[in-house]
Amino acid sequence: MAINWFKYSAPSTFYALAGKLAPWFAATAAILFAAGLYIGFFVAPTDAVQSEAYRIMFIHVPVSILSMFIYLVMACYAALGLIFNTRLSGMMASALAPTGALFTFIALWTGALWGKPMWGAWWVWDMRLTTELILLFLYLGFIALHASIDDPRRADRAAALLAIVGAVNVPIIYKSVEWWNTLHQGATIKFSGTSMHVAMQEALFTMLLACWAYAIAMTLWRVRSIILERERSTTWVQDLPEFKR
Amino acid sequence: MMNKLSLPGLLALVIRRDLVLAARRRADVLTTLVFFVMVVSLFPLGVGPEPEMLRKMASGVVWVAALLASMLSLGRMFSADYQDGTLEQMLLAPQSLPVLVLGKILAHWMASGLPLVLMAPVLGLQFGLPAEQLGILMLGLVMGTPVLSMIGAVGAALTLGLRGGGVLVSLLVLPLCIPVLIFGAGAVEAAASGVTYSSHLSLLGAALVTALVLTPWVTAQALRISME
User: How many structural domains compose chain A?
Assistant: First the structure.
């Protein structure tokens, strides 16, 4: 059976699909957040070096990973939009940007809260921190450029080009702890195994999945709003049951 | 029958045209330069005239001022051609658009970046930089300011004809320029503290080569998006 991959690239079909999927992802996120925070705060043992302060890791690490990952997903959608000229790709990219910016901000904020007891400073001009800050600026630049162009199609394509150019920053953030001799610690979890307690790992992965599900749910809801806004003059939007009186 | 120019011929033609235009409007070139000198001169007034601190700050201050000054001149890269319709003709022309764009970028650098490079040693002397570090500062600026012009060209092309384009272009371009600033100022700092500085300059050179290859093409795409 041939699958029509482009079926859901039409905003009208994707609108319905997103509406069906979003509540499931949101519910998953809520359950996983509760479980992850419970394991992180009550089950995971106290760290030998950092005592209780390390527990902020269960928020800091997942949002930091996703802040980079969401940018890459956004850049992929941007590239798809430029290559295939699909309308939905640009909408997805602009729906992802606010969540990505939020995660980047939370990563910097929780990093500052973690840095104060560990390093004795809210902020150090370390390469990992600086490149993550640049990532926040890139998200804000993307949103600002999109917002300042009135024609949505031109806005999509201009912002897409910016997103792709900015993607060079992501591997630099990821590798910054290896390339520069920095204060920020390197990766503890590697594909070859880890030096972490099992409960800590469980909490971390649960929180990562929770953030992931949250990002998907928010993006789907946001893309539904964007679709409605852009397609408001089409008949399929006016025929939607939620707009029938 | 239109005679097709060779690529170097086209490049030279565009550079000559833009330099002639810049020479006719000398005030624009001078504004950037005066801005650069003024920003650098503000720092000793703001933080106090201690020679030891000024010597430490010099490279960073000169680099930040050069970055800001190059932002100032970005708006002019395409806007005049956009307003009088020349840019549209360039897009329609059978010549290679990326090469045309590269010509405009290089001319822009000669008119706005090169004066900064030539002025930098004078400012460095005011801050008490020793001769060896002055040389490294200039070498870094020679490699770094073209990168600023090239990354800036992408931003200028994306924001062409938008309201509030001037502020927006800084928001888009400054984050991407930060690595240039880090390596450029870092080279002088490394030389000052006696460690090897060639790695910083190598990275700056790598950034220059990468930007030289990619940005004219990206800028051409951005112009096509902005002009459709």
Answer: 1
Q: Which of A46-60, A174-188, B68-82 has the lowest mean pLDDT?
A: A174-188
- Residues ≥6 apart with Cβ < 8 Å to B30: none
B159–A145 CB contact, under 8 Å: yes
Q: What does the pLDDT look like over A100-140, one tens digit per residue?
A: 999 999 999 998 888 888 888 888 888 788 888 999 999 99
Q: Read out DSSP for A40-63? A: IIIISPPBTTTBGGGGGHHHHHHH
Residue A4: inside a domain: no
The answer, for A144 touching chain B at a CB cutoff of 8 Å, is yes
The secondary structure of residue A188, as a DSSP letter, is: S
Report chain B's C-alpha Rg in angstroms.
Answer: 18
Q: Is A105 left (phi over 0), alpha (psi -120 to 50) or beta?
A: alpha
Q: B25: Cβ–Cβ under 8 A, 6 or more apart, which residues?
A: none
Residue A109 lies in a domain: yes
The reply to whether residue B221 touches residue A154, judged by beta carbons under 8 angstroms, is: no
Question: What's the mean pLDDT in A184-190?
Answer: 65
Query: Which among A138, A146, A136 is positioned nearest to A163, based on CA atoms?
Result: A138
- Shortest Cα–Cα distance, B1 to chain A (Å): 34
ipTM score over 0.85, yes or no: no
- Cβ contact, residue pair B172, A130, below 8 Å: no
Cα Dmax for chain A: 63
Quickly tell me which residue has 């909408």 as its tokens.
Answer: A91
Instruction: For residue A25, give the nearest of A216, A209, A219, A208 by alpha carbon.
Output: A216
Token output for A193: 């195994």
Question: Where in chain B are the domains?
Answer: 7-227
Q: Is the dihedral of CA A152, A157, A162, A167 positive or negative?
A: positive
Would the CB atoms of A158 and B225 count as touching at under 8 Å? yes
pLDDT in tens, B16-55: 999 999 888 888 889 999 999 999 999 888 888 888 888 8
Give the one of B163, B176, B218 whose C-beta lies nearest to A161's C-beta. Answer: B218
Choose the closest CB to B171 out of A140, A157, A172.
A140
Question: Would you say residue A29 lies in a domain?
Answer: no
Model pLDDT, residue A34:
92
Give the domain extent around A191: 36-44+53-232
Closest CA relative to residue A111, chosen from A164, A67, A162: A67
- From residue B215, give the alpha-carbon distance in Å to each of A79, A120, B129, B176: 17, 41, 33, 12
